[in-house]
């Protein structure tokens, strides 16, 4: 194997390492959509109904109760 | 986890103890768990090779763990004992610091403390009698029952399961109890939604729940003796023939090793366990789980860590922040606006605007919110640390000011968006401020902060922020956690959300002082940028 071949292999290896790191980052980005989507779905499903029903009296109460259920510590 | 391959005696000799640490000779490279006993009581454990450093030829050295430093002042009989066999390897009378009394590793009420496997100083089970652990056992029953009512099948997990299966009791060097459950869903998004529903059910039942991630939370209970107890609940999914259980497990696993639920006995009480608890213990602690190891370290694979991080983590960015807390005495009188708020009020006056509602994001002690409410303006102070605004919030209530203080997690969309929706219903025009928030939080939270600002300021509101500015000479991150921000990048982010920069001021300012704790203690310069943003 000549020097040129060796240099070529080293260059390709470096390229592959870089590509793997990129792919790992891309996979991670895809995974992170799970949490975002779950949060958004939860907000929409819990809060959309009273808003769609235009139940003015309940909207504030529902917003407040939803907020409390997310994790507010007791005072 | 290391394991002994032969049973020849451990040849540990010539122990010397200093204020810095312990050193000893180890003639054979035996890696065994060694307990450190002070006056006959276990305080700490380490692996004789893994956790020590080579010193002079033939010697090993290990530093005292930092949590113990404040106790090491006085005299003690120090023993090193091999954990598994109970064999005393070395004994010495140690005199540390300048003290004269006996060294006592105890809490402020004189109760014995020790280090758990994470080197956290806790009241360990080995120092509690049956009467003292009964409230914990009651709490486990309560939370198990609540989770069952909420629709999942919980089981003892981690150290609690290990203790139950291996010893029938709590592990002496452990300090808390853990529960797990495996979701019926295999897609992370569905399992996270289920976890949100569980949390909601538990809150409806009257529990105080603190979320760690999309798949784990802590249930806090007030026990009969008034002590606050937190039980951690870890969710898991079965997917592609693997179990992924928050926060450390990822292993090939079969569904019938989890269900139907089995039974395990802990301190004489029966609790639910996974169908085959030994399988879960092997997946959690490796093949040597039957050998006690108070210095155990998880060796979670990179692939599992990436999966658990990617799917479930990211809701607790603010946890890492350690803000100084303003002293209550300082907050009892003479509350005035920060220099930042004075700047905002001047601009609003010059623009002939009457503020309808004021909102301070990351309000800290809440002084600016208080100041605005005192002028009769409905004001909101939102922060991740309610303990920081507690004093001023109580004062606002006593004075019947129109101020609302609220816990808000800027890393959680479920916290930020509904609060934004609620405030968007308050009187306009609304002014939103953020003093040293965008330079304190991560990218996810910054995105939600800008989204909140856009939501609340729509239709004539203003968003004002103050941040450390990245400069060529000061790219450092301060010890106060603030990261100087690239202002051009921030402006691009704001404009992408429809905001228009209407004011900009670059200043060098000293720290705001004890009432408005922000950049105090910062080593670098305080080159700040203030922006005023309008949404039409």
Descriptive report:
- The complex is a heterodimer of chains A (75) and B (536).
- By secondary structure, chain A is mainly α.
- Chain A has helices spanning 3-52, 56-71.
- The longest helix of chain A has 50 residues, at 3-52.
- Chain A starts with a helix and ends with a helix.
- Chain B has three domains: 12-114, Immunoglobulin-like; 125-316, Beta Polymerase, domain 2 (2-Layer Sandwich), CATH 3.30.460.10; 328-535, Rossmann fold.
- Chain B has 536 residues and is an alpha+beta fold.
- The A-B interface holds A 24, 27-28, 30-43, 47, 59-60, 63-64, 66-75 and B 187-190, 192-193, 196, 199-200, 203-204, 208-211, 214, 306-307, 309-315, 386, 390, 406-407, 409, 412-415, 417-419, 421-422, 425.
Concise account of the structure shown:
The complex is a heterodimer of chains A (75) and B (536). In chain A, 88% of the residues lie in helices and 0% in strands.
Q: How big a fraction of the residues of chain B is strand? A: 25-35%
Helix and strand string of chain A, N-terminal first? HH
Structural class of chain B: alpha+beta
Terminal-residue CA separation of chain B: 60 Å
CATH architecture field of the largest domain in chain B: 3-Layer(aba) Sandwich
The general outline of chain B is: globular
* Shape label of chain A: rod-shaped
Oligomer: heterodimer
What is the CATH topology assignment of the largest domain in chain B? Rossmann fold
Q: Give Rg of chain A in angstroms.
A: 26 Å
Alpha plus pi helix count of chain B = 11
Major β-sheet profile of chain A: none
Please report the number of helical segments of chain A: 2
């Amino acid at each position: 194997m000549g020097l040129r071949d060796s240099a070529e292999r080293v260059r390709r290896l470096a390229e592959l390492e870089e590509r793997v790191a990129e792919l790992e980052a891309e996979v991670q980005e895809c995974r992170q959509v799970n949490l975002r989507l779950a949060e958004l779905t939860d907000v929409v499903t819990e809060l959309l109904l009273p808003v769609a029903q235009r139940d003015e009296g309940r909207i504030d109460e529902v917003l407040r109760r939803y907020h409390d259920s997310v994790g507010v510590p007791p005072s | 986890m290391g394991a002994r391959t032969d049973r020849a005696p451990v040849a540990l000799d010539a122990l010397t103890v200093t204020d810095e640490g312990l050193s000893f000779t180890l003639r054979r490279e035996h890696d065994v768990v060694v307990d450190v006993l002070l006056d006959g009581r276990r305080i700490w454990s380490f692996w004789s090779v893994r956790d020590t450093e080579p010193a002079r030829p033939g010697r090993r050295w290990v530093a005292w763990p930092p949590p113990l430093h404040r106790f090491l002042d006085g005299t003690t009989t120090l023993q090193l004992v091999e954990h598994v066999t109970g064999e005393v390897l070395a004994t010495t009378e140690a005199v540390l610091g300048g003290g004269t009394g006996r060294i006592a590793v105890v809490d402020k009420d004189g109760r014995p403390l020790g280090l758990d496997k994470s080197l956290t100083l806790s009241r360990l089970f080995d120092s509690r009698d049956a009467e003292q652990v009964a409230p914990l056992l009651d709490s486990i029953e309560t939370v198990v029952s609540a989770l069952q009512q909420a629709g999942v099948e919980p089981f003892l997990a981690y150290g609690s399961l290990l203790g139950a299966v291996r010893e029938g009791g709590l592990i002496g060097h452990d300090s808390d109890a853990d529960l797990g459950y495996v979701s019926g869903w295999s897609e992370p998004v569905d399992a996270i939604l289920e976890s949100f529903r569980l949390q909601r059910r538990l809150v409806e039942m009257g529990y105080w729940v603190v979320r760690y991630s999309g798949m784990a939370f802590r249930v806090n209970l007030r026990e009969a003796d008034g002590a606050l107890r937190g039980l951690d609940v870890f969710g898991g999914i079965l997917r592609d023939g693997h179990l992924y259980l928050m926060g450390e497990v990822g292993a090939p696993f079969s569904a019938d090793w989890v269900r139907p639920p089995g039974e395990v006995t802990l301190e004489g009480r029966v609790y639910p366990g996974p169908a085959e608890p030994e399988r879960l213990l092997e997946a959690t602690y490796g093949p040597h789980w039957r050998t006690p190891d108070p210095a155990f370290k998880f060796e979670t694979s990179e692939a599992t860590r990436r999966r658990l991080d990617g799917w479930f983590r990211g809701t607790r960015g603010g946890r890492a922040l350690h803000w100084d807390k303003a002293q209550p005495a300082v907050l009892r009188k003479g509350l005035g606006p920060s220099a930042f708020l004075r700047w905002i009020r001047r601009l609003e006056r010059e623009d002939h605007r009457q503020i309808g509602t004021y909102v301070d994001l990351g309000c800290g002690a809440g002084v600016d919110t208080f100041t605005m409410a005192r002028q009769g303006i409905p004001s909101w102070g939102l922060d991740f640390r309610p303990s920081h605004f507690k004093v001023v919030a109580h004062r606002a209530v006593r004075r019947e000011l129109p101020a609302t203080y609220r816990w808000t997690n800027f890393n959680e969309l479920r916290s930020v968006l509904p609060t934004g929706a609620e405030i968007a219903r308050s009187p306009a025009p609304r002014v939103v401020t953020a003093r040293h928030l965008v330079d304190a939080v991560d990218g996810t939270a910054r995105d939600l902060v800008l989204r909140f600002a856009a939501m609340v300021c729509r239709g004539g509101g203003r968003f004002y922020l103050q941040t450390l500015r990245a400069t060529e000479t000061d790219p450092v991150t301060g010890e106060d956690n603030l990261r100087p921000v690239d202002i051009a990048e921030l402006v691009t982010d704001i404009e992408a959300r429809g905001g228009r920069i209407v004011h900009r001021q670059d200043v060098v300012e000293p720290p705001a002082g004890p009432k408005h704790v922000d950049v105090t203690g910062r080593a670098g310069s305080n080159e700040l940028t203030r922006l005023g943003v309008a949404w039409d």
